[in-house]
Amino acid sequence: MNSTAGNEKVLRGVLDAWKAAVDAHQPERVAAGFTEDAIFQGLHPYSVGRQGVADYYASQPLGMTAEYRILETRQLGEGLVLGYQTVDFSFTDRPTLTVYLSLVVRQQADGWYISHYQVSRLR
């Protein structure tokens, strides 16, 4: 899969599952979309592994939802895709927060998983 369309299909599959779990406030389900050794950098100090991802999303407020838009994709190698997205996190009690999200997704025997997740806020 060397095409941009193919890369976007992979990313959409991963991101749609991530979004559904974030929107449903199901931290363990969010974490299940990451590799066991994923490097995760949200807007708090980084963590490694699924437990850190679950803890991060468990601390998010109820009612938070995510809308993403893929900006760029690259195939880094066989079974590795880079995605660069914007994400709008909406809340029930405060303004929407727009961030930039870089992902590396890795193909494993049973599907694609996030192995690197890094959020940044550009002002």
Automatic annotation (TrEMBL):
InterPro entries given for it? DUF4440, NTF2-like_dom_sf
- Which protein, by its recorded name, is this? Nuclear transport factor 2 family protein
Q: Which organism is it from?
A: Streptacidiphilus cavernicola
The record's section on Pfam families has: DUF4440 (PF14534)
- The UniProt record lists the DUF4440 domain at 12-113
Origin, by domain of life? Answer: Bacteria
